[in-house]
Amino acid sequence: MSYTPNLLLRNVRPVGGDFDGSQTVDIRITDGTIAEIGTELNPQKENETIHDAGGAYVSGGWMDMHVHLREPGYEHKETIETGCAAAAFGGFTEVACMPNTNPPIHTRDVVEFIKKKSEQLPVEVHPIGCVSKEREGDSIAEMSDMKEGGAVAFSDDGDPVYNSQLMRVALEYSSMLEMPIINHEEDLKLSRPGHMHEGKVSARLGIDGTPGIAEETMIARDILLAQFTGGHIHVAHISTAKAVDLVRQAKADGINITTEVCPHHFDLTDEEIERRDFDTNVKMHPPLRTQEDVNAMIEGLADGTIDAICTDHAPHAIEEKEVEFIYAPNGIIGLETAWSISVKRLLDSDVLDLQTLLTKFVEKPREILNLDIPKIEEGTKANLTLFNVDEEWTFSESAVRSKSKNSPYLGEELKGRAEAIYNNGRFVINEI
Whole-model pTM above 0.85? Predict the structure, then answer.
């Protein structure tokens, strides 16, 4: 990372706004602002850094609206700094971090601590505050005060908001504050003690499973509560075909609902647990589902039912994952590989074209969180991601920027990656 307020990007192909990726241009950034877009621009200042992108695409900076940075409290898994390094490598210039920290993000001072810790980084961090005090699900947190401190949404993620009356009150507040409630959709009485998807594979392996209905019943409840209150419900990490159908119908009914999906849920199935001999790096929650569910995720992305792509980046230390499958914590890292998996499953298979895929990374997360959307226009703040869709590379341990390495994609050959990001006057070139 370097502080580079003045930068001349040469030979880039912008995608977004008036650009469709077919035109090669130069972009001059002066004092962190896009000052000029043209062809064959010449350096104007001695302190202007020149970077020839060699025809790489450039878009507005990507955003992941669902990550776990673990700080404060669990710095042995990840810190704000290492999590943002992983985000930068993955092409993300902004992330929203979930509140299951210690202490949880349930008061304004914790929100402001996170904002302060990240203010000098190239990746902007937007804290998501708790719905309930201490994230215990009993009483409503100080939502308005957290908004004043910089929170962008509210969630008890890691656990659902299980109390229906509490969720009703939260959605009423969300309507007044114009901020979404992001719920981890899980009926705990139906899901526990599940360690994988309940189905043919879990039966064959003899492992307690979590049925899809545990997710679907909570989504159905939240749809009804959102309809009743007028609040904005956002379904976190959707994973089942019936869940997608529920959201699709709710949108058709005019209910204020949005949702997101993780790359592993439109790429991998529960068969991986058997194929990989109980590798704990394919254990996450919601669990990997069936091929039918994977197909539904892809269909939901294609028809717009699923708004955004997120990672649910969930670092765990090696010793935490190197245990028997049923004792391992749920979660995988995902920031570094999200783009490559999306290229493989969505772009190369012609499910989405490049511009539509980028809306899932650039516009939609920010629309949901009511944040400014970066644009490639003269006079706007430079918030950019440089990327390609065809470079073949190996996700080796040397490419991991996270403090943890719990990824099912470690060692795999991937295609397409983020080459660099520019944000907050800082330029990060990603070296493999």
Answer: yes
